[in-house]
Specification:
mainly alpha; single chain; rod-shaped
């Protein structure tokens, strides 16, 4: 009908509008669980899946070990 505005489509909350007050659910790229943390949402990986893909390297101190050596002649 002329002179009437079209009705806004229902948003995710069931009310009219776009639902800008709600976040879009972001899911982990590997396990597809919902992500809640800001870092997880930014990277697209949950903390468990991120640890699987990017394991921490060994600490340099854990690789050192003492080696018995003979004394140098003349000292």
């Amino acid at each position: 009908m002329p002179g009437t505005e079209p009705e806004a489509p229902a948003g995710p909350d069931g009310r009219g509008g776009t639902g800008t007050g709600t976040r879009n659910p972001v899911r982990c790229r590997l396990c597809h669980r919902p992500l809640t943390g800001a870092d997880s949402r930014r990277t697209g990986l949950g903390p468990d899946c991120d640890a699987k893909l990017h394991p921490t390297g060994p600490d340099i101190r854990t690789r050192r070990h003492e080696v018995e050596q003979d004394t140098l002649p003349g000292l």
